[in-house]
Design a protein that fits this description.
Layout (H helix, E strand, L loop, with lengths): L1 H12 L7 E6 L4 E6 L2 E7 L12 E3 L3 E7 L7 E7 L6 E4 L15 E3 L1 H14 L4 E6 L49
Parallel strand pairs: 1-9, 7-8
Antiparallel strand pairs: 1-2, 2-3, 4-9, 5-6, 6-7
Amino acid sequence: MACAAMLLAVAALAPARAAEVVVRVDKDAQRMTVTVDGQERHAWAVSTGASGYETPAGSFTPNRLVPDHRSKEWDDAPMPHSIFFTEAGHAIHGSHAVRRLGSPASHGCVRLAPMNASILFNLVAEAGTASTKIEIVGVEPIGTGFAGGYGQRAEYGRLTSFDPLTSGIMAGGDTPRLRSEPRPRP
């Protein structure tokens, strides 16, 4: 009996094991899943880097948590509940641009809805940065620039002047034809 009591006393004094938190960002799907000790807890829409602003892929450990950060690089933009994971300043953070979630829209960070960012921030703060892993996989989808306005896909046809229907072998020879011309009937 005394031995059992001693084991209970030692167990009570031993520090609790920190939960292992894995944050997985899929740039192809623009989704984040959060697992705690192997059990999925959350799945949220995110925004990763827009055209020209890639979110780095790889495995990371958070290096800094800042509850109320403002970006010095991007016009003092609010970045609530920032979880920084690169020395270059990439972070997971809240964003009020919630209509853009689910599509690439950031300058390289991973954006979340403000409430979800708060939940994740508190989870990482509780578990500790050493017990948190951030995995970013995939690539930002092609053709998601801002040329058509927010939420619209860009038109990339303007990037080349070659049109196989009006010149070259598809048009039937060296003489260019206009698309609007009716085709001669045999």
